[in-house]
Structure formats: structure tokens, C-alpha cells
Write a structure and sequence with these properties.
Number of helices: 7
Structural class: alpha/beta
Mean pLDDT: 97
Helix content: 25-40%
Distance between the termini: 28 Å
CATH class: Alpha Beta
Strand order of the largest sheet: 3-2-4-1-5-6
Low-confidence stretches: none
Order of helices and strands: EHHEHEHHHEHEE
CATH superfamily: Phosphoglycerate mutase-like
């Protein structure tokens, strides 16, 4: 039996456009972010999605709503990585005080370690047990990159090499070749 899990990143916010790490800060979607979410709707409608989960952050919930999933089950398991002391900073600002920093290798002081993030990704994937597919997670960039590594059962550091734009989606597949990242960073 095969199973598809789709991942949809929320639309653009002020901080996603200027590269600031946005974990607990709950910024609204910009008008262009709302448009990105609306553009997801017709494509996702074609996929026959039966199960939907969404982060409890407003930007993800609004994306799910505009994309046609207003009743997605809300869970904090799908929240963005906890950036701790790095909340609101850009990677360039972090590198100025900690050269070579990488979230999936180093984690964030006062926030989540890579091991904690990976464990949360595994717990999120466990939500799918017994749920009909295909399914979808509406969430955030760093979290979705990490959840794809937990899906494929590879090291979380692999997520460093995945790019994920706002308002895009991905397809993870479980079939004849096991769990794979089938399609990535698909624009609509």
C-alpha cells in the first residue's frame, strides 16, 4: 500500500521576506502571502487529500484556510523550529557572532536542539498512523525541511541542503521503495 504526505509552507510574511527567523513570533501573512496560499487551492484540490494537520501559528492556519483546508487539525507539533535567542535574527546576524552556525547541526541557544526538533518531527509523523491518505501538513520552512528527513529516516543535517520557498508544496511518498522525498519545493 502506498501513502503520500504533502507538505505546504505558509505564505510570505514580513520576516520571511527579509530572512528573519520566525518561530514563536506570530506574524500575519502579507497580501502576497495570502495570494500564494490561494494559488495552492486548485492544485491541492486535485490531490484527493483526506487528512490535514496545521501548525497552531496564525500564518500556517491562514494558509491552510485559504488553500481550502479550514478544518485542518491544529497541533503544536507542526510549529516552526524554536529559535530561542536567535528569534527575529537573520542568518547573517547570527553568523556575525557565531561563524559557521547551521540550525540543523548546532540548534539554537535557548531554543531547540537538532535532536529535539527531529524527535518532534517523528511525533508529528506519528499523527498519520491510522489516518487515511493522502495527507497534508501546513507548517513552516525549517520544520518542513526537518520533517522530510525524519520521513526518509536520514540525518537531520540533510535538511541543510533543501530549499523551501513560501507558498510552495512537496510530496513525500511511501511505496515500493520505502519512504522517499518524491517532489520538492513545487511552485503553483
Amino acid at each position: 500500500m502506498s501513502y503520500d504526505l504533502y507538505l505546504a509552507r505558509h505564505g510570505a510574511t514580513e520576516w520571511s521576506l527579509n530572512g528573519r527567523h520566525t518561530g514563536i513570533t506570530d506574524l500575519p501573512l502579507l497580501p502576497e502571502g495570502e495570494e500564494e496560499a490561494r494559488r495552492l487551492r486548485p492544485k491541492l484540490a486535485e490531490l484527493g487529500i483526506k487528512t490535514a494537520f496545521v501548525s497552531d501559528r496564525g500564518r500556517a492556519r491562514r494558509t491552510a484556510e485559504l488553500a481550502g483546508f479550514p478544518d485542518a487539525a491544529v497541533t503544536p507539533l507542526l510549529e516552526e523550529a524554536d529559535y530561542g535567542d536567535y528569534e527575529g535574527l537573520t542568518s547573517a546576524q547570527i553568523h556575525a557572532v557565531r561563524p559557521g552556525w547551521e540550525i540543523y547541526h548546532d540548534g539554537c541557544p535557548g531554543g531547540e536542539s537538532p535532536q529535539q526538533l527531529y524527535a518532534r518531527c517523528e511525533a508529528a509523523l506519528a499523527l498519520l498512523d491510522g489516518e487515511p491518505g493522502p495527507a497534508i501538513f501546513f507548517s513552516h520552512g525549517h520544520f518542513l525541511r526537518a520533517v522530510s528527513t525524519a520521513w526518509a529516516q536520514v540525518a537531520i543535517t540533510v535538511a541543510t541542503h533543501l530549499s523551501l520557498g513560501t507558498g510552495t508544496f512537496c510530496r513525500l511518498h511511501d511505496g515500493d521503495h520505502g519512504r522517499v522525498i518524491e517532489e520538492w519545493n513545487l511552485p503553483v
